[in-house]
Specification:
70% of the residues lie in helices and 0% in strands. α3 runs antiparallel to α4, α3 packs antiparallel against α6 and α4 runs antiparallel to α5. The two termini are 23 Å apart. It contains eight helices and no strands.
Length: 283
Amino acid sequence: MEDYGRFLVLLVSALLVGLVSVIFSLVWVFHYREGLSWDGGPREFNWHPVLIITGFIFITGIAIIVYRLPWTWKCSKLLMKLIHAGLHTIAMILAIVSVAAVFEYHNASNIPNMYSLHSWIGLTAVIFYSLQLFLGFAVFLLPFAPVPLRAALMPIHVYSGLTTFATVIATALMGITEKLIFSLKNPAYSASPPEATFVNSLGLLLVIFGALILWMATRPYWKRAPEKDAKVLRPIGGTPKGKEAESTVTNDSNAHKSDLRISSEAARKQNLKLDEAGQRSTM
């Protein structure tokens, strides 16, 4: 891997920032917001920021870069797909539970649902994330989709995954700001009480975590290399991968074999390009 040392520094930094963000969310709800419960009250609402930060941001970020970890490159493509999809599934479940907590709290407290920009964008992100996860399973995990289809959908898959991740972080920033404005009365949010400063710091950590993940996920030289045992598309009469045609005693036969090897090599490069696109799924 090119620039392996820098990748490790960024990876460790992202993990530390992400873990600190999760800890900050727990400190916020237990120290400032009465803790967690499932009773229809404010403590039930507190599940929302904790689960969004833990699942929808931290676990999703790890799922995005799991293919980039060089020590996993010796693992099979199927195993890495299962890990990638599994992490995203966990994040999706936690996000759904967090949304359910908000709706139940609002209904119990006679608070209107879906009136703020935060709620609009947040629910949209959950829906798109669900679609992204479903299409990822159908196209990249199950063995039924043809390789050309995977190659065609891969740029859309990658772009929508990274866009949704960035959108979730932006929505979380809106949400914690909205919560502080509604909750802090005496002193008010504008007076910068300790809780406001603490939660603002949490927002900065989320931005840093997102920036680190997006940087690692978009560097082309840190992509997982294609598998060496990929199947090769061979033209009719072409030679198998890694094998040359039997030598003949005539120059005409040697020239013919040379043409076949060139044709086979071109087909091999085309196939590796498609396989590389099919194996680097990022939900």
